[in-house]
């Protein structure tokens, strides 16, 4: 029995490593280091490190990357009983550049991957007894028609069992057939979710506004219960029918890699709510973990244990 369930595509990530690789085009990089990656798996890693039980749903190829991913998940104490394997499709992977400023460049090898061929049949046998939280992102529905149908089926099952749903849009335009299809689908899933967590730039794409309160109202008026708009270093804006406030962020001495910060933010919110924190306190935790994430090279390397998180918060409070 797990507290949290998520569905997605885990990837083998090859990130450029070493000072000689900084600001190089991916084609020119000579040295890479292998990591476990994927937005939803990042959330699993973070939630597990904070002491909560989590189960991951996906499909992997019967190949070296699939084996690496499953072994990595097991090491992080992430449940794998809902991971199916296939010899018909390969496991996806990606390459990531190293930059001195801003977001690194990403190149995917995931078209027609094993996870893209996940379908509703793969959800048979799913037991939601005891599950308190389902987390979704906009990436898995982008992979294929079948993965999209599976995402909607999981939403339906969660609602039938009165399980809280968080949704991070995690826009990846390169995975969609068109921008219009992306916006329509992402917003439809957001309307069906309890807590929606867009970034400010995502809000502009999805709602036409970059004003936090207008973004929040867009989703609140369509069925979401709480909207948290991520504001980068400025923190996050929170609005529900009961409350509205901005939660400040944390100072970071040196940004190493921005990828994984948003997933770390989701880790803070989800774990905080599981522990009975107020939404404001949960968002503060999210801001903290997001800050810790950008100081490490891998997508989830910087996610803390409970002791490390408490130490970071104590240091920031001084």
From TrEMBL:
Pfam families: PfkB. InterPro entries: Carboh/pur_kinase_PfkB_CS, PfkB_Carbo_kinase, PfkB_dom, Ribokinase-like. SUPFAM superfamilies: Ribokinase-like. Residues 21-305 form the Carbohydrate kinase PfkB domain. One of its GO terms (molecular function) is kinase activity. Keywords: ATP-binding, Kinase, Nucleotide-binding, Transferase. It comes from the Bacteria. PANTHER family: HEXOKINASE FAMILY MEMBER, PSEUDOURIDINE KINASE-RELATED. Belongs to the carbohydrate kinase PfkB family. This is Sugar kinase. It comes from Clostridium neuense. The lineage of its organism: Bacteria, Bacillati, Bacillota, Clostridia, Eubacteriales.
